[in-house]
Amino acid sequence: MNTAVWVVAIIMAAVVLMRWLDGRRQHRLRTTVDEQLTQQQETIAQLRQRIEVLEALVTDKSFQLRREIDNLPH
After folding, report:
1. How far apart are CA 21 and CA 14, in angstroms?
2. Phi/psi of residue 71, nearest 5 degrees
3. N or C end of the chain, less CB within 10 A?
4. Phi/psi of residue 73, each to 5°?
5. Are 57 and 63 in contact (CB under 8 A)?
6. Who contacts 57 (Cβ-Cβ below 8 Å, separation ≥6)?
7. 63 Cβ contact partners less than 8 Å away, ≥ 6 residues apart
8. What pTM value is reported for the model?
9. What's the pLDDT score for residue 1?
10. CA–CA separation, 26 and 32 (whole Å)
11. Would the pLDDT of 67 be above 70?
12. d(CA 53, CA 64)
């Protein structure tokens, strides 16, 4: 085979290999980002639940009455 053909073949193989490796890297990156997003969404859902509980406690009339009683001068 001609030297020029070998050079072109090596260059083409390198390009294909580089694209394949880049695709694998991007896939791993997307997987990591998706996992982080899922974890953050779960954290947000848990925080929302905690806020709902706190709101229910603070707006509860018996809670307000206890605060008023506690604030009475002794």
Report:
1. 10
2. -85, -5
3. C
4. -65, 140
5. yes
6. 63
7. 57
8. 0.57
9. 66
10. 10
11. yes
12. 15
Length of the chain: 74
Q: Which residue has the tokens 């990591």?
A: 32
How far, CA to CA in Å, does 26 sit from each of 17, 21, 22, 32? 14, 9, 6, 10
**Hunting for tokens 């009683």 — which residue is that?**
69
The amino acid at residue 57 is L
Q: Would you list the domain boundaries of the chain?
A: 3-71
Tokens of 62: 């018996």
pLDDT digits (tens, 9 = 90+) for 3-54: 999 999 999 999 999 999 999 999 999 999 999 999 999 999 999 999 998 8
Q: Please provide the DSSP assignment of the chain as one string.
A: --HHHHHHHHHHHHHHHHHHHHHHHHHHHHHHHHHHHHHHHHHHHHHHHHHHHHHHHHH-HHHHHHHHHHHS--
